[in-house]
Write a structure and sequence with these properties.
heterodimer, A: alpha/beta, Rossmann fold, about 25% strand, B: MetI-like fold, globular, disordered N terminus, binds adenosine-5'-triphosphate, binds magnesium ion
Chain lengths: ~270, ~350
Amino acid sequence: MRDLSVKNVEMVYEVPNGSNVHALSNVSFDLAAGRLLTLLGPSGCGKTTLLNILAGFLAPTGGQVTLGNDIITGPGQERGMVFQQGALFEWLSVEKNIAFGPNMNGADKAQTKARVDELLDIVGLGGFGDKQIYELSGGMQQRVALARCLANDPDVILMDEPLGALDALTREKMQKLILELWQETGKTVILVTHSVEEALYLGDRLFVMAPRPGRIERDYDLPFAEKGLHTDTREMKASPEFIEKREEVLSLIWEMEEEIMGRTEGV
Amino acid sequence: MSDAGMGARAGGVSGAIDGMDAAAEYALPASKAKKSPNKDRKTVTFGDSSAVRSDTRWSVIAFIGLILLWWVSTKPWGLDEAFKAADLSDAERITVCNQSEECGRDSYSQLAGPLTFPSIRDTWNAMGTLATEGFRGPTLWEHMRASLWRVVRGMFWGMVVGIPVGFAMGLSNKARGFFDTIVELFRPIPPFALIPLFILIFGIGDGTARNLLIFASIWIMIIAARSGVGAASLSKVRAAYSLGASKRQVLQKVLLPNALPELFTGIRVALGVSWGTLVAAELVGTREGLGAMIFAARPFFRLDVVVAGVIVIAVLGVFMDMLLRILEARLIPWRGKG
Ligand SMILES: Nc1ncnc2c1ncn2[C@@H]1O[C@H](COP(=O)(O)OP(=O)(O)OP(=O)(O)O)[C@@H](O)[C@H]1O
Ligand SMILES: [Mg+2]
């Protein structure tokens, strides 16, 4: 397991008409292995951009990202990605989707099969192996995406609004699943969300990001993820300390939103 | 459902009777439901094209209507008079006939038909004769085989060349730039317009017909393949790279299967166009083929043969499209369900 280190990352999108977008400005942080970091912030503050840089899909215009001793220059198996939706391969069965990574690496067939069955059980899809993707509900599809990512045993799991398209109940179940997986595997997880509650509940660390230029506004260490594993979720979300944190973060985000509104009104 | 109900209770006699009652009870709503297959609970249907389905009864009515129209128009008291009025004198017929080198005076008198629109019976008989003896040479089956083979071969080469080119255009700047010019310039050219040039290059006969059909399908397949590559969502491609796929694997395991729906659409369009180009292609000195058959019958005013040929072409076209649809449902079950 390796620590993630982000140093002075800059990202400027060049737009043809000249008005360049400063999506990330001087973003720096260190993330110890095995932590669960959630990213929260108003739309357009660069969460997806940051995640894409960490995944190696985008090269930053400045600064660098290292995992352990390796500088990240492109996508790699040690960093798995779970997308919001639509990244599963419809032409493959559930089983084959999950086995995609090992198959690309020419892994042993029997071993892969055993691993896939195990993962299906872990994400609660035992017996669904030979179903087709379009036969599954949105929640089940995200479980497959998670299992597919885990099949390659990455050090870091990156998730961009993985639960964004799910209904409230399914979402809650998936949150629990993510927490349990994180606990069991000890992997580093970075998760983008739009829900303050989700960010607080899942994150053992939380960045609230601010836009224009995109930057990390506040860095919280949170106790709820650890607690959430042992106590009743509902109860915890209703506890005074949770509510207090939620209000704090919410007002921070509202402030930002108002500032943005004021700025656009001024123009 | 009723079977299960009965089976589950088959243990005792009274149980079996109960089971039958229950089965009867369940069977009723089930059969009702079948009669009106989910008779849309939608209240707004006018303007909702997804609620419009092809009503088989009306399709049958249209078909019967066409047959009736044909039947009526070839009756002595029907529209047939119109054809009579346009009749040519024997002398004129012979002149027309002599313009084509194929028929001499003698053969003409045996082969020429009346200049009237062929009745259903005439056409049916013509098909029978065509199937067994043929018209001036090959039988209907040989014509059909030649035509089908030509189309399949044209499609094959159109695909073999078109798909890789389309993929290259979807993957590389250089290929996109290079082929864009060529595709945009050649695509709008109707294959018919090229017949004289093709004759010059490939000579009169099979070569011209074959290459004309390749020309008809290749641009369609290139464009289908290009848009097929474009159809892959960025997240699928990125997911594949993150999972350790190489470029080659992304191409084989992601881009190719993901492009199947577009490729299939391309194949269906290309098949339609090829089939449409076929008759013209077979004009050019081919001996076998449905188009050749029709054009061989023309100078003899054997309209029954012409109509029989046209019908065979229509039916084969519909049949091939149906075949492709079935294949598509098999190969691309996820289509339209994403
Ligand atoms: N390919 C691109 N070209 C130009 N500008 C871009 C591009 N991608 C993102 N941007 C801009 O960069 C900024 C950050 O975008 P990003 O997608 O990272 O935001 P986000 O925080 O993920 O937003 P959301 O919460 O809506 O998903 C935005 O202002 C956006 O308009
Ligand atoms: Mg985003």
